[in-house]
Specification:
This protein is α+β, with helices and mostly antiparallel strands and 267 residues long. It has one domain. The chain contains 4 helices and 10 strands.
Length: 267
């Protein structure tokens, strides 16, 4: 056996042996409160509640057929090639940036496709090497125009990072400035914060705060009842807030062409 083949075999064995997240599906649910606060050029704030999944990309939950319509995790909903797996696409994106996890764990925080619909304004991937050391975090952003973009973050020990803004999200902000993020790996609590800074001012803040709940059939049913059609509601909520801002006279900024991003977009 070649050294390359032996290394691949060891990597595969480590991934198979690694313990997934607790519970029958090796996943966690977070009951979340999401808040957006815009401070410039006018103040506007809103909150809404939803639930998010935290899954291990090497142990994507396989739900029983009766519950599958409530939660599907499909490559077509995220970065890369829809004909590959979520893990393969994430590894390919990282390889394009010179990062090799050597089979280390990747945790993904996202909405699942539910009742045929999904919309993820932000998906986060916490990436570790084979011995469990954090390597990087990937922030995958989707806008309401069907586009996506990924930011490769190198957070400090507290999960804090800064990156230039390269992607058109809100129609009321141009593509400039940068994001100051706090993305610590979730535990019993989920604490994500994203500030948009322009010309030295903090003009927008989004926060996600959540508490871990059991990812069990009963836990999923409870979440689905508390937050029916959750991803559709998120999408509609964003559009409703945009209409309110238009009604207040906030001008729309031109949307530039978004170039192909290797490993993220397929065309």
């Amino acid at each position: 056996m070649s050294s390359r083949a032996a290394h691949q075999e060891r990597t595969t064995a480590r991934a198979a042996a690694r313990s997934p997240l607790p519970g029958p599906w090796g996943a966690a649910l977070y009951d979340c409160r999401i808040a957006h606060v815009r401070t410039r050029p006018l103040r506007h704030a809103f909150t809404h509640r939803t639930y998010l999944w935290l899954i291990d990309l090497d142990h994507v939950p396989a739900l029983p057929a009766a519950l599958r319509p409530l939660a599907r995790f499909q490559a077509r909903d995220h970065l890369g090639d829809p004909d590959r797996s979520l893990r393969q696409n994430l590894d390919r994106y990282l390889a394009g940036h010179g990062v090799d996890l050597h089979g280390g764990q990747v945790l993904m925080l996202a909405h699942a496709r539910s009742v045929g619909h999904v919309f993820n304004p932000l998906t986060l991937y916490w990436c570790h090497d084979a011995d469990g050391t954090p390597v990087c975090t990937v922030a995958e952003v989707h806008n309401t125009y069907g586009q996506r973009h990924c930011y490769l973050l190198r957070p400090d020990a507290d999960g804090r990072s800064w990156t230039a803004k390269d992607f058109y999200v809100s129609p009321f902000f141009p593509v400039d400035g940068g994001y100051r993020m706090s993305v610590p790996r979730p535990d019993a609590a989920l604490r994500v914060t994203m500030h948009l800074e322009r010309e030295g001012d903090r003009v927008f803040t989004a926060t996600v705060r959540g508490s871990r709940r059991p990812a069990t059939p009963l836990g999923l049913l409870r979440a689905a009842v508390r937050h029916p059609l959750s991803t559709l509601v998120v999408s509609l909520h964003i559009r409703l807030q945009a209409l309110r801002l238009l009604a207040r006279g906030l001008p729309i900024q031109p949307r530039p062409d978004h170039p192909h991003q290797d490993g993220v977009t397929t065309r």
